[in-house]
Backbone:
């Protein structure tokens, strides 16, 4: 996965540089800056290394949280550009135990209707190819590219049972979900689509759906570790406001 991530990243950068050099000769360009904000719906895909621990995972659902950040975009005006972001993004997971999974017992203790979850705070840095179609005032946009995430805060586990409840002791002490044993960096791919509405001559309002898949794992994933997979997945709804700070006039071939 790491090799695939690096290959896609270098390929994207090479395409952007080559394509950008071709387009600069013929089309008006713009450099825009702005802010973004929205909602994240996240979960962590867990998979144990041994089948005898599969019952220690509850039924997981997406956890809703917030995201916001800064956006810079360079557009060549020929359906293509590049977009950089630096975001504060909340992720995490929540799970619930019930008999529909086939078992609600862990270490002989009934965990029926017990739910738990953990919140993760990341600094998220996507490097996106920006593609658009449509008229000047209304465009359909597609953003796609690699991203890096740096874990800033790892919140305590939240339960729906009292602090000293014996059901919390049902989980083995070596389960990393309940310890401070995590990786502080993640990497993956991010993609999405939406609309860009131009307001006036320089302002843009963008609405976009995003999906992010992490190639890294939150916890160690060797054969001797508890999990072989614990990667982030996120859906997002993002609204971005951009201002065209710089515009380049069209240059025809041969013009000095």
Residues:
């Amino acid at each position: 996965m790491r090799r695939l991530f690096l290959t896609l990243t270098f390929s994207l950068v090479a395409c952007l540089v080559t394509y950008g050099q071709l387009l600069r000769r013929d089309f008006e360009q713009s450099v825009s800056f702005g802010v973004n904000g929205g909602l994240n719906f996240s979960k962590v895909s867990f998979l144990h290394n041994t089948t005898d621990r599969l019952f220690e995972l509850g039924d997981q659902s997406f956890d809703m949280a917030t995201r916001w950040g800064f956006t810079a975009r360079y557009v060549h005006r020929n359906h293509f550009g590049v977009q950089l972001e630096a975001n504060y993004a909340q992720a995490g997971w929540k799970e619930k135990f019930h008999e529909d999974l086939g078992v609600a017992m862990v270490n002989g203790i009934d965990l029926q209707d017990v739910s738990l979850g953990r919140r993760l705070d990341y600094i998220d840095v996507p490097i996106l190819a920006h593609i658009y179609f449509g008229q000047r005032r209304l465009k359909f946009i597609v953003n796609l590219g690699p991203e890096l995430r740096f874990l800033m805060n790892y919140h305590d586990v939240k339960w729906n049972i009292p602090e000293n409840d014996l059901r919390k002791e049902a989980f083995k002490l070596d389960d990393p979900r309940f310890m401070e044993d995590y990786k502080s960096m993640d990497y993956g791919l991010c993609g999405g689509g939406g609309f860009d509405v131009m307001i006036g001559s320089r302002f843009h309002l963008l609405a976009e759906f995003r999906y992010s898949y992490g190639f890294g794992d939150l916890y160690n994933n060797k054969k001797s570790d508890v999990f072989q997979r614990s990667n982030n997945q996120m859906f997002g709804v993002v609204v971005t406001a951009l201002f065209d700070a710089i515009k380049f006039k069209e240059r025809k071939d041969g013009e000095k």
